[in-house]
C-alpha cells in the first residue's frame, strides 16, 4: 500500500510516519486485503490536532475518517478507531462486494461547478438569471449499484453521492436526509 503522510503547517516526523504506516496498515489489512493507497493529513487548529485519513480500496471504494485531540498521536488514534469501526461495520458487505464485483468500479468524467452564493451579484447581471460560475473542475462519477452507492457515501462520510446506476446507466443520487434516513433519487421514468 502506498502512503502519503503530510502536515498542514506541521512537520510530520519519521516516528509519526512509521507509527501511522504500522497502525493504519494493520487496521486496513484486518478488514480488506486490497487497499491501494492511503492519504493521511495532520493539521492544527489552536491547541487541537486534527488527523484526516482517506484510504482508497482497489474496488473503487474510499474510506474516510477524522480524529481530533490535543495530542497528535491521540488524534491519529481517534481517526484510526473511526476507520476501524466503519470497516468493521461494513466487513460483510465489503466481502460480498468483492465477490460480486471482480472488476474495479468504473468511473466516468463529469463537470463540477461552484456557483457564487452572493445573490446581489446575480441581480446585477443585466437582469439575466445566469449565476456566476466561480470554479469549474472535473469530477469522477462511479458506476455502482444503489446498495454500493449508499455504502460508499457512508464510508466516505459525505452527505451526498452522485453515481451512475449499473442496472440502467442513468445518473442517480443518494443522500443523507435530515431525519437520518437515506434518500435515493432516480429520475428515470419520471417524465
Automatic annotation (TrEMBL):
Subcellular location: Cytoplasm
Keyword list, A-Z: Cytoplasm, Translation regulation
Function noted in UniProt: Required for dimerization of active 70S ribosomes into 100S ribosomes in stationary phase; 100S ribosomes are translationally inactive and sometimes present during exponential growth.
InterPro entries cross-referenced by the UniProt entry: HPF/YfiA_ribosome-assoc, HPF_long/plastid, RHF-like, RHF/RaiA, Ribosom_S30AE_C, Ribosom_S30AE_C_sf
CDD domains: RaiA
Official protein name in the record: Ribosome hibernation promoting factor
Organism: Paracoccus haeundaensis
Gene Ontology process terms (BP): negative regulation of translational elongation
GO CC term (a single one): cytosolic small ribosomal subunit
Domain Sigma 54 modulation/S30EA ribosomal protein C-terminal positions: 130-183
GO molecular function, one term: ribosomal small subunit binding
Superkingdom per UniProt: Bacteria
Subunit and partners: Associates exclusively with 100S ribosomes, which are dimers of 70S ribosomes. Interacts with 100S ribosomes.
Family per record: Belongs to the HPF/YfiA ribosome-associated protein family. Long HPF subfamily.
Principal localisation: cytoplasm
Presence of the UniProt keyword Cytoplasm in the record: yes
Keyword Membrane in record: no
NCBIfam families from the UniProt entry: yfiA
Amino acid at each position: 500500500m502506498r502512503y502519503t503522510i503530510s502536515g498542514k503547517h506541521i512537520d510530520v516526523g519519521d516516528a509519526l510516519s512509521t507509527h501511522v504506516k504500522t497502525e493504519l496498515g494493520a487496521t486496513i489489512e484486518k478488514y480488506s486485503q486490497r487497499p491501494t493507497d492511503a492519504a493521511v493529513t495532520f493539521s492544527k487548529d489552536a491547541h487541537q490536532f486534527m488527523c484526516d485519513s482517506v484510504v482508497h480500496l482497489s474496488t473503487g471504494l474510499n474510506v474516510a475518517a477524522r480524529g481530533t485531540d490535543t495530542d497528535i498521536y491521540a488524534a491519529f488514534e481517534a481517526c484510526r478507531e473511526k476507520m476501524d469501526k466503519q470497516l468493521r461495520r461494513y466487513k460483510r458487505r465489503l466481502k460480498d462486494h468483492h465477490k460480486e464485483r471482480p472488476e474495479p468500479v468504473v468511473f466516468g468524467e463529469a463537470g463540477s461547478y461552484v456557483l457564487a452564493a452572493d445573490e446581489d451579484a446575480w441581480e446585477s447581471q443585466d437582469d439575466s438569471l445566469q449565476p456566476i460560475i466561480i470554479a469549474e473542475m472535473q469530477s469522477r462519477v462511479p458506476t455502482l449499484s444503489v446498495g454500493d452507492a449508499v455504502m460508499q457515501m457512508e464510508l466516505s462520510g459525505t452527505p451526498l453521492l452522485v453515481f451512475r446506476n449499473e442496472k440502467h446507466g442513468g445518473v442517480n443520487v443518494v443522500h443523507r436526509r435530515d431525519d437520518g434516513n437515506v434518500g435515493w433519487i432516480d429520475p428515470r421514468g419520471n417524465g
